[in-house]
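Trying the structure run again after the queue cleared.
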Amino acid sequence: MISEKKLAEKRLTEAYNNAKIEYFDNNSKYIFFSDCHRGDSTPSDEFAKNQNTFLFALEFYFNNGYTYVEAGDGDELWESSNFKAIRLAHDEVYSLLKKFFDSNRLIMLYGNHNIYLKYKNFVKKNYYKFYDDYNQEDVELFPGITPYEAVVFKHKNTGQEILTVHGHQGDRMNDKLWHFTRLTVRYFWRYLHSIGFINPASPVRNAEKIHKIERIYSNWIEMNKIMVICGHTHRPHFPKVEELPYFNDGSCVRASGIQGIEIVDGKIMLIEWSIRYDPSGDLHIRKKILRGPKPIEEFDLRTNKTNIVK
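Done. Tokens:
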């Protein structure tokens, strides 16, 4: 059997070779979130507690001209195959996502928990439109949307590339064996999950597995000289000095808040939105910069670099 290291190298290279190309420059603005795991409002719906924080943050990014990149596992389709229930549970979220879509500022990737989005018929049936029971008519949601496994962000002037994937590529139980893992989640771990137990196939709260994934991805980065942004492990990561450019945008299901990665003014930063109190006891949603900002060009590993056109 092929090792997970070799499997990840193969899968990441395949994802890179088949990726959508998104050109950007120093005037571009992106916010990357992943691992929302939007559920159906049952006790296992981890996103529900952070929905208001997410809405507040996303409204900020929409009003300030950002493109929203959802880097996989936006919808929890392993625990619930009924997307209608998920959409109804988080109707305001989808209304806001539609505003991004209608403004041509939504890039959606699929991960292991919403891998059904790789199937065009599933996307067409569930995401193009929905039936409004109250008004008894079809309403457009994301007509014609194409979710991707990978997107390569390529700088218009320097040619520097950033590979964005969910991060499950090469994680055998969540990649090649996802059919089996999905069944265990839907019919067993979902119920234990609601009372605090974690599926052992998941890297979440499994430090050994998280570090293994980070090492494997860093090895691919070193071999290919390409920066990577991903999610999957739920562990936010911004490389220290001398570390390889492996970035992880965290998740939207932590009790502390939601983490993400911003690219703006040619710089990258790791951020967190959370609920905080002021001296009077009032609660406010605030953004905190956890790491950065750092110029993206600092993470360009190529030996032959193109100078930025002034």
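The domain at 4-299 is CATH 3.60.21.10 (Purple Acid Phosphatase; chain A, domain 2). Worth checking whether this holds up in the mutant runs.
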